[in-house]
């Protein structure tokens, strides 16, 4: 009997992009369900499958929910280990990959949000911190093609969703990603050569439009 896999997601979510890319990298057949209004009108299925956080993405595997995108990517890697393994087998390298994923989740995601939700001195501080965080990641990447070394791996999957959001950060932060983090931008373009990434990251202009909508919705203009 084939696995039943359903992904509840909302198209601009960096978190959902991780799970989508992981499923595509593994060649897993799944049903994609778009949550059209994750702010004011969450579906009953979303609330049933993620009663704690009530947020997307939710991966439903044979009727059982798996929540939180980093957990989902790790779960996908363990359930379908045969194709394109994400996490290294070596315990130390594995720990390092998990460390950087946690860094992205707790630092980059949080600070990135402040770039488009603040103004004045707060925005200046957010810009400075955000670029510093990205340069730390760029230093970790070094001269490797991917964070996973020669292969697209766990950290790449966790971070690449930011690539389609970079133009929005540039617009609202008023800086050039190419000038500030050229090696990281080259990494992003390299990742975009993969069908699993290029076909599932939304158009950056559409992301900018969505952020403008949010700023208006929450009175942040």
- Largest sheet, described in full? 4 strands, mixed
Strand content: 5-15%
Mean pLDDT across the residues is: 96
Distance between the termini: 52 Å
Oligomeric state as shown: single chain
Spell the H/E element sequence.
EHEHEEHHHHHHHHH
Coarse morphology:
globular
Taking pLDDT < 50 over at least 5 consecutive residues as the criterion, the unreliable ranges are: none
Count of DSSP helices? 11
Report what the structure shows.
This is glutathione transferase. Its EC number is 2.5.1.18. Belongs to the GST superfamily. Tau family. The chain has 11 helices and 4 strands. It has 221 residues and is an alpha+beta fold. Helix 1 links the parallel strand 1 (5-9) and strand 2 (31-34). 34% of the residues are buried.
Short description:
With 221 residues, the protein is of the alpha+beta class. It is built from eleven helices and four strands; from the N terminus they run E-H-E-H-E-E-H-H-H-H-H-H-H-H-H. Helix 1 runs parallel beside helix 3, helix 4 runs antiparallel to helix 5 (120-141) and helix 7 (166-173) packs across helix 11 (204-217).
């Amino acid at each position: 009997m084939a696995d039943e896999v359903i992904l509840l997601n909302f198209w601009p979510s960096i978190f959902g992009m991780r799970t989508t890319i992981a499923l595509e990298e593994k060649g897993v057949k799944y049903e994609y369900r778009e949550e059209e209004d994750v702010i004011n009108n969450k579906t009953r299925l979303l609330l049933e499958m993620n009663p704690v956080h009530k947020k997307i993405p939710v991966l439903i595997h044979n009727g059982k929910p798996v929540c939180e995108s980093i957990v989902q990517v790790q779960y996908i890697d363990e359930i379908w280990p045969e194709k394109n393994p994400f996490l290294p087998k070596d315990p130390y390298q594995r720990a390092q990959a998990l460390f950087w994923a946690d860094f992205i989740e707790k630092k980059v995601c949080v600070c990135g949000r402040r770039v488009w939700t603040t103004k004045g001195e707060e925005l200046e501080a957010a810009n400075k911190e955000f670029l510093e965080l990205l340069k730390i990641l760029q230093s970790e990447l070094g001269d490797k093609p991917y964070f996973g070394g020669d292969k697209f791996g766990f950290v790449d999957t966790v971070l690449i969703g930011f690539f389609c959001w970079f133009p929005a950060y540039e617009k609202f932060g008023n800086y050039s990603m190419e000038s500030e983090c050229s090696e990281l931008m080259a990494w992003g373009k390299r990742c975009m050569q993969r069908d699993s990434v290029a076909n599932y990251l939304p158009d950056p202009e559409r992301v900018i439009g969505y952020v403008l909508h949010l700023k208006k919705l929450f009175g942040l203009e």
